[in-house]
Amino acid sequence: MHTHLTEESLTQDDLTDLSLLRLDLIAAIGVKNGLPGNIFVAYLMPTGEKPFEILHHQNFYAFELDFPPFIRSLEDEMERHRVFSPDDKRERAILVSVSKRPRYEQEDSVEELKELARSSDILVLDTVIQRPKEINPRYLMGEGKMKELVINGLNKGATLLVFDQELSPSQVKATGELTELKAIDRSQLILDIFAQRAHSRDGKVQVELAQLKYRLPRLTGKGTAMSRLMGGIGGRGPGEMKLEIDRRRVRDRISLLEKELKSLSAARIQRKQRRVETGIPIVSIIGYTNAGKSTLLNSLTKSYVFVEDKLFATLDTASRRLRFPRERDVIVTDTVGFIRDLPKDLLTAFKATLEELEDADLLLHLIDASNSRFEQHIGSVENILRELHLNEKPRIIVFNKIDKISAEEANNLALRYNGVTISALDPTTFIPLLRSIEENIWPMKLAEAKV
């Protein structure tokens, strides 16, 4: 409650304070001839386009409001409109995309960000998409829009802002200071998912290395210690082990992990040499994350690799033997899923694992035919293969999940991409795929058999 000397109504600053400071109610009393004149009151709203309601001004002496029961009923109404239970301890996020890209591209990318959030067990409360004329170097979006975003987040009970674009260290700092909400970007969210899902020693080392490389430049402005690294989303992994390690010790840890990665890589080379000596061909399943690679490996080889309908459900490479007629075998390997804009530090860390693709005699590029964005997924996988210099490697285009689309659509895809169609859940659809693998690996022997 404060005074306005000229009896003006509540200002924008008053209403912003009401929203940002989460006040129950704000009142301005006008002063007239040294005495109270009109009173102007506003309070937060549980729902609706406007986050607050302004009461019509009344004479101060005639104004009546029983404050405690009014606020109690308002809070009860707010609780009823919450989209989550008070017992739900998950992070609650608003997803934000600020870019000059066409809106349909932004919407596609935000849909994928939603899936990433679900994989990290985040409750998504709302999404905000903006196409500004100019990108604000401090907050990405303008300060006014950022305040609107914060008010919206606070009204909905958000604890986290997830940006679809990569944030610089200074942007993370400025956004956190303005909003007082934790702000992370797409890269940090993916790193968090990897930290949850890595189980093998290889995977854990690669993820920790990527996290430390990502965080090292982001220690600026926080002293020389990591004491302000938070827990929860964006804070899993190495930050929890030693919160007080300084920059020098982070670099030492990075150096140690890189040496361990080389040692693990040497062990993989030894395993590769043993496979080469046996002369068994290697077939690697690659594809966009959640295309069904692990499900296909399980169905082909009658094995069990963990499967879940989430992005990056499995990170660790798995290899199984598959027997063909005439006493011939191949090794089938399942690799980490690809995704567009894969964090550079993560791609660098996982290159050691992805180098195993160089040893493959054949790549099976698995595509989720039921996903409306499958063409973009194909492009993302092709780009990563080019980065790894594997784009010339023999490969078969395999459209999966045809049980979710019409037979005509499946046939058209096979003709258009010169590929094969399967449902990884139905082994009876594998005959064309197995025949195509045979033709690629043993072409001469098959030709002789036909003669």
Q: Would you write up a description of this structure?
A:
The radius of gyration is 28 Å and the shape is elongated. The chain contains 15 helices and 14 strands. The strands form 3 sheets. A 6-stranded mixed β-sheet has the order 10-11-9-12-13-14, sandwiched between helices. A 4-stranded mixed β-sheet has the order 1-2-3-4, covered by helices on one side. The chain has a 4-stranded parallel β-sheet with strand order 6-5-7-8, with helices on both faces. With 451 residues, it is α/β, with parallel strands linked by helices. 43% of the residues lie in helices and 19% in strands. The termini are far apart. Helix 3 packs parallel to helix 6, helix 6 runs antiparallel to helix 7 and helix 7 packs antiparallel against helix 11. About 3% of the residues have low confidence. The protein folds into 3 domains: 79 residues, no CATH class; 99 residues, Rossmann fold (3-Layer(aba) Sandwich); 172 residues, P-loop containing nucleotide triphosphate hydrolases (Rossmann fold).
Q: What is the typical, i.e. mean, pLDDT?
A: 79
Low-confidence stretches: 221-229, 239-243
Going across the major beta sheet, what is the strand order?
Answer: 10-11-9-12-13-14
Number of domains: 3
State the total count of DSSP E strands. 14
CATH superfamily of the largest domain: P-loop containing nucleotide triphosphate hydrolases
What's the helical proportion of residues?
40-55%
| Rg over alpha carbons | 28 Å
How would you spell out the order of helices and strands?
EHEEEHEHEHEHEHHHHEHEEHEHEHEHH
CATH fold annotation of the largest domain: Rossmann fold
Approximate shape: elongated
Largest sheet: 6 strands, mixed
Count of discrete alpha- or pi-helical segments spanning 4 or more residues? 15
Task: Write down the CATH class of the largest domain.
Answer: Alpha Beta
**What's the end-to-end separation, in Å?**
95 Å
| CATH second-level architecture of the largest domain | 3-Layer(aba) Sandwich
Binned strand content? 15-25%
Structural class: alpha/beta
